[in-house]
Write a structure and sequence with these properties.
single chain; 141 residues; alpha/beta; three-stranded parallel β-sheet; three-stranded antiparallel β-sheet; 21% strand
């Protein structure tokens, strides 16, 4: 996440949504609020980064599958909460990044879900500069 946010990859700062096991983060109200924020980003073309947002994936199923419908010459996608759904416009520049730990991806996430994404594995050693790599090597020896 730090690498992404520190890069010049984004035109504007992405919306980062963190999930947690705190009871307040598991409520329907929090899910609705997060979906509203994602909906705004979809319409405006702002990137969204989802971190530990397992609760959101089902609501974003069509968007994550890029299952778009064209309405009035604009891309739309269905967002779902429980039994309700709503069509939302999707800006051409909109992107979503899902960040998960590799252990969680292997143990908890289903293969069809993982297959929706381009996957990048970033290890802690990949974050080190040349001086830090030399110090690490010296400590290991």
């Amino acid at each position: 996440l730090q690498i992404l946010l520190g890069s010049s990859f984004f035109k504007e700062r992405p919306l980062v949504l963190f999930g947690s096991d705190f009871p307040a983060d598991q409520t329907d109200l929090q899910t609705y609020m997060n979906l509203q924020r994602i909906k705004y980003c979809m319409e405006s073309g702002r990137c969204v980064i989802l971190v530990y947002q397992d609760r959101m994936y089902e609501s974003l199923y069509d968007m994550l599958n890029q299952h778009y419908t064209i309405v009035n010459e604009k891309r739309c996608v269905r967002l779902v909460v429980e039994t309700r759904s709503k069509m939302c416009y999707v800006h051409d520049d909109f992107r979503v990044i899902v960040i998960v730990e590799s252990a969680q991806a292997i143990q908890d996430l289903q293969a069809p879900f993982l297959n929706r994404f381009e996957k990048q594995l970033i290890l802690k050693k990949d974050l080190l500069n040349s001086v830090q790599i030399e110090v690490t090597k010296a400590l290991e020896d």
